[in-house]
């Protein structure tokens, strides 16, 4: 404000001086050339002073404005830089969001496809087992009626023969029956072992060894390379004794039997199921190794 008042005072001083000069000129009838030149020089000097003051004022105003604008410009430049940074971050985040959305969609589609494949494979496996069960049932049916007993010839009866009293048979325990069947299996008499294990299951259906007996029936069929029957025997272990300790082994052997009949889809499905249901078992370790070598 002080810089603005000073030029105004100078202009007022100059105006007053001019009035004085005019008054002097008007009151004097004669003025010398020297006086006129002096006054003219004085006017020129005052004009120069006014010009200098105006220039100084303009410069000061420009400096003040510039000094006030410069921080604004710097702040604005900083804000623009930050804005550009935010825009880049938004673009980067948008790209990542879009990429993640695409990955999620693909993952969901893949999971859905995998689930559908597993369901289809399970359905196919169920059909296969049912078909084998039907074949086994058909094989068990008698092919012809048993011949009836021939009537007697009508010969006169001979003298009555008194036979000695038979000795009482030794009592065969549950353990004896199971051990006998196992002995037949170890001797390689697989047909007889199967019959003995089935007899054991018929006599002792609720025995703690029932699941073992059924499992060894499957092992006997495997030893004879009757893989379809082995699959059905192992399925009985899984179905009838789901809480027994032979289920993981039965599933593993069932998978190996499927490999033998070249049904790799069912075999791999069973191996994956073992790993999923019994991850800490020896059967899971074997299943994982089998999957690696049969890709």
Q: Can you walk me through this structure?
A:
Helices cover 78% and strands 0% of the residues. With 295 residues, the protein is mainly α. Residues 143-156 have low confidence and may be disordered.
Short characterization:
The chain is mainly α and 295 residues long. It has helices at residues 2-27, 33-140, 174-186, 190-203, 210-223, 227-240, 247-260, 264-277, 282-293.
Relative helix content: over 70%
The average pLDDT score comes to 77
**Could you say which overall geometry the principal axes of the C-alpha atoms support?**
rod-shaped
- State the secondary-structure class: mainly alpha
The rounded distance between the terminal residues' Cα atoms is 92 Å
Total number of domains: 2
Biggest sheet character: none
Strand % is under 5%
**Strand segment tally:** 0
CATH architecture of the largest domain: Alpha Horseshoe
CATH superfamily of the largest domain: Tetratricopeptide repeat domain
Task: Predict the CATH topology of the largest domain.
Answer: Serine Threonine Protein Phosphatase 5, Tetratricopeptide repeat
Give Rg in angstroms: 57 Å
CATH class of the largest domain: Mainly Alpha
Low-confidence runs: 143-156
Keywords:
rod-shaped; Serine Threonine Protein Phosphatase 5, Tetratricopeptide repeat; mainly alpha
